[in-house]
Amino acid sequence: MLRPYRTFTVVSSLPPVLGPLRELALNLYWAWNLDVVDLFRRLDRDLWEATGHNPLLVLSKLSQERLNEVAADGGFVAQMKRVYRAFNRYMGQNDTWFSSFAETCPDARIAYFSMEFGITEACKLYSGGLGILAGDHLKSASDLGIPLVGVGLLYQQGYFSQYLNADGWQQEQYPYNDFYNLPLTLERDPKGQPLKASVDLPGRRVGFQVWRAQVGRVPLYLLDTNISENQPADRNITGQLYGGDLEMRIKQEIVLGIGGVRALDALGIAPTVFHMNEGHSAFLGLERTRQRMAAEHLSFDEARELTAAGSVFTTHTPVPAGIDLFPPHMIDHYFSHYASELGLTRDAFMRLGRRPTSQGDDSFSMAVLALNLSYGANGVSKLHGEVARKMFLDMWPGMLTDDVPIGHVTNGIHLSSWLSKGMSSLLDRYLGPQWADRPHDRRVWRAVDRIPDEELWRTHERRRERLVAVARRRVETQLTLRGATEQDIRIASEVLDPEALTIGFARRFATYKRAYLLLSDPDRLSRILNDPERPVQIIFAGKAHPADSPGKDFIRQIIHLARRSDLRRRIIFLEDYDMSLARYMVQGVDVWLNTPRQGMEASGTSGMKAAANGGLHVSVLDGWWCEGYSEAVGWRIGSGESYADQQYGDQVEAQSLYDLLEKEIVPLFYEHEERLPRAWIAKMKNAMRELAPYFNTHRMVSEYAERFYCPAHRRFTELRDGMCGGAKEVAAWKKRVRSNWSQVRIDEISGGAPDGIPVTSDVTLQARVHLGQLTPSDVLVQVYHGHIGPQGDIEWPHVTPMILESQSGADSLYSGTFSCHGSGLVGYTVRIVPRFGCEAGDGRLPTQSFTPGGQRLEHPWVPGLVLWAS
Fold first, then answer.
1. Residue 79 pLDDT more than 70?
2. Alpha carbon distance 765, 748 (integer Å)
3. Could you count the other beta carbons within 10 Å of the beta carbon of residue 685?
4. Model confidence pLDDT, tens digit, residues 326-342
5. CA dist list (Å): 120 to 116, 509, 658
6. Are the CB atoms for 430 and 447 separated by under 8 Å?
7. Among 773, 732, 783, which residue's Cα sits nearest to residue 301?
8. What are phi and psi of 400, to 5 degrees?
9. In what order do the strands lie in the sheet with 762-770?
10. Which of 83, 251, 378, 839 is the most buried (most CB within 10 A)?
């Protein structure tokens, strides 16, 4: 192989009048602005499709003659100038949502770390939902004016492209990304050289350069280890997303977490808040702690308090198997030097990534590390928050599940990225531009009811027709590449009916998502699909992980079933599911189907995209559908049951799904009044009006800003100011409380109430407690009370603070009063928990004192320290 003596870049030669096109192409604002897309499509519609919707590549491939022709086209130039003016107004806008909120956290800067980012199909740096969510997060942060930067990895091959062999078995290809023809900019130092930083791996230093993808107002910095200074194996660290073995995974996560922090340093960016989107980037907490120790001359505990105060962790997995775990020998290999720099013994370092109940040979958990180095943590739906609190309960020994400091922020979608052009135009006419500017304002969406039924239905029908046309072309191409017969290819040109009820099922093909549920009774399904008066059709799409053979087998089964003569025009599988195909599907289907095994889906967002486009959602009550479902907006499969016998549960829910189709969904779709399915359209409007204003990333990201980012910024700055005096104070307080907690006890509880007291009566208690070397300002004494359930436990508990009445040495008397608001059996107990900054243990917080707590999301508890009355 011949290496070049020197390299240089070549760019397209644009006539001066077309100069704005390059600036527009280099800002991914076009990924959600249809006017910019129309501008580039107008240059060459076929080339736009052939380049995978990459405007920079379109510019590079256009002939000079075509560029000169466009420069002389007054209509095109006028359109370009209009689009460019709108772009500049957007980029220079000062009155954003965050500008009115910024006074609550001035000078905040948030760094958002994620293993993958799905912003556009032109930049294949995503595999599925996690990446799409991260991309939508950045887009809404840009729209809302939030001072946020993204940090990720730039993969030379990205995620794989999928194709199926003649038997229907998934095959993988890894096409290379040409960074110089993607909308990316290589960051440079003051000397004009590529900006570089490095991380230390055993026996060597691995360097990386930094690229920037500009996402509207938000820069996304992407790290690239494929540089000549690195060894060949290290150049491949950023080779593939989720590629390679566990050894490759830990190296990628070191580059992302530790390298990401160092890249921001090299760029001169000093965030006050770090948001870890899943545990992949959790090593960043170690690097920030190490840096603070060195710069501020802090102990590990002091620096840890400071960095954790400004850290937020979002978990996306509902099962322990979804968490990254590294064996102890691997952590020893990569982090023995790091432990020394942090002043930690091996055991102390390992405890950062282990649960309190872990044994000496247990693996190192990235989620546990993230929780140990963050004050703010959340799941991604209300149900997932509950699941996460149970899953990580043992991280806070002695606490009850509801007290575990993990909240939830339900996921959403970036509406402008996923609504069809026709639907967007319709909303513009009847809702005004506010639906895009303020999509989380429910008042805006009330105007959906003003849309004439016929207009909404015709808009949706056009999208279904386009989906069918695209599906036919793709099936023909798939069969041609597989070497199918001319007859099979001819039949492919006639698959699907543009007027039939169309069901979409597209997602990662993992076993728990149960793609087979709808296919479990092929004969019954055939009768449903082939009803001559009420035909139904199903479009499947999705990828299985390259190592997931059962998932691949599900795809093969679908392909074989779709070859049945009675189903080949009613069931199709579309290969290589990506953002482009996803848009066609969520915009064109009538029904979006979701069948995960109960408790296995943290949130899910594809159904949100379909609902915003007028599609109706059918799902088990899992993830976001627990919050979104009502009879008015869609259908549920079952009632949220979990089955010990999974095979039996699958049978029950498959029959439930068939019943829904036969008795409710299909009849409603084909029930016409004055040539329109009025009842179906009413359900479409309900779904759009009720679901779109909540399940969007504007609401989600503003919630992160209000509940996580700004509190974290305030925590961090209060602990940092005054030569980190706050961090030192909190660390010293925690050390003192831990060393003296064994002396704390509850000696006596008196008061209470007799049986038979009336509803609304007050109950007063006294508790004599012994605090040893601690003081009343170190603790909260609380009454924990509520109705008694059938198992004898306190259900739906309430917590009432107790007031310090008197103190004599280490002994104190507290009293507290609570009201009984319902009849039945009521119980109570008393507990003591540590609390920094309390005034005499009365639960009131001094205004000038930093408080780690105050609500679940800000860690009111010191892990492992809680005393219950016995």
1. yes
2. 10
3. 20
4. 999 999 999 999 999 99
5. 12, 21, 36
6. yes
7. 732
8. -85, 160
9. 745-752, 762-770, 811-819, 803-808
10. 378
Alpha-helix residue ranges (DSSP H) falling in 373-441 = 382-391, 415-418, 421-431, 434-437
pLDDT tops 90 at residue 97: yes
User: Do residues 141 and 745 make contact, with C-beta atoms less than 8 angstroms apart?
Assistant: no
Question: Can you tell me the distance from the alpha carbon of 455 to that of 512, in angstroms, rounded to the nearest whole number?
Answer: 39
Strands 185-186 and 273-277: unpaired
Q: For 99-113, 224-238, 306-320, 702-716, which range has the lowest pLDDT when averaged over its residues? A: 99-113
Q: Which residue has the tokens 């009454």?
A: 783
CATH class of 744-868: mainly beta
pLDDT band at 489 (very low <50, low <70, confident <90, very high): confident
Residue 866 tokens, joined:
């809680």
Average pLDDT over the chain reads 92
Q: H-helix or E-strand containing 698?
A: helix 697-704
Q: Which of 406, 377, 229, 260 has its CA nearest to residue 308? A: 377
Residue 409, token pair as written in the block: 């922020």
Q: Are 353 and 369 in contact (CB under 8 A)?
A: yes
pLDDT tens, position by position, 830-859: 999 998 865 443 333 333 233 333 333 344
Q: Residue 693 has what pLDDT?
A: 97
Give CATH superfamily name and number for 110-324+367-408. Glycogen Phosphorylase B; (3.40.50.2000)
Strand, helix or coil for residue 278? coil
Check if the beta carbon of residue 509 is closer than 8 Å to that of residue 552. yes
Q: How far apart are CA 181 and CA 56, in angstroms?
A: 6
3-state SS, residue 580:
helix
Average pLDDT over residues 775-782: 94
Q: 281, 256 in Cβ contact below 8 A?
A: yes
Instruction: Say if strands 536-541 and 501-506 run parallel, antiparallel, or are unpaired.
Output: parallel
Mean pLDDT of 398-414: 94
Q: Is 759 helix (H, G, I), strand (E, B) or coil?
A: coil
Q: What is the mean pLDDT of the segment spanning 292-297?
A: 95
Phi, psi of 812 (to 5 degrees): -135, 150
Distance CA 640, CA 642 (A): 7
For residues 441-467, average pLDDT: 97
Helix (H, G, I), strand (E, B) or coil at 6: coil
What's 413's DSSP letter?
B
β-strand pairing of 745-752 with 803-808: unpaired
DSSP result, 133-152: HHHHHHHHHHHHT--EEEEE
Fold match between 110-324+367-408 and 744-868? no
Q: Is the pLDDT of residue 864 over 90?
A: no
Residues in Cβ contact with 234 at an 8 Å cutoff, skipping those fewer than 6 apart: 201, 204, 206, 225, 251
Confidence of residue 490 (pLDDT cuts 50, 70, 90): confident
Name which CATH class applies to 443-688.
Answer: alpha beta
Under DSSP, the state recorded for 786 is: E
Which residues have C-beta within 8 Å of that of residue 538, sequence separation ≥ 6? 502, 503, 504, 505, 518, 529, 570, 571, 572
Q: Where are the domains of the chain?
A: 16-92, 110-324+367-408, 443-688, 744-868
Token couple for 56: 């920079």
Side chain identity at 306, as an amino acid letter?
L
pLDDT band at 641 (very low <50, low <70, confident <90, very high): confident
Whether the pLDDT of residue 806 is over 70: the answer is yes
| C-alpha atoms less than 13 angstroms from C-alpha of 816 in its C-beta half-sphere | 24
According to the model, what pLDDT value does residue 848 have? 29
CB–CB of 717/272 below 8 Å?
yes
- Alpha carbon 187 to chain centroid distance? 27
3-state secondary structure of 418: helix
What DSSP letter does each residue of 592-618 carry, written as one string? EEE-PPTT--S---HHHHHHHTT-EEE
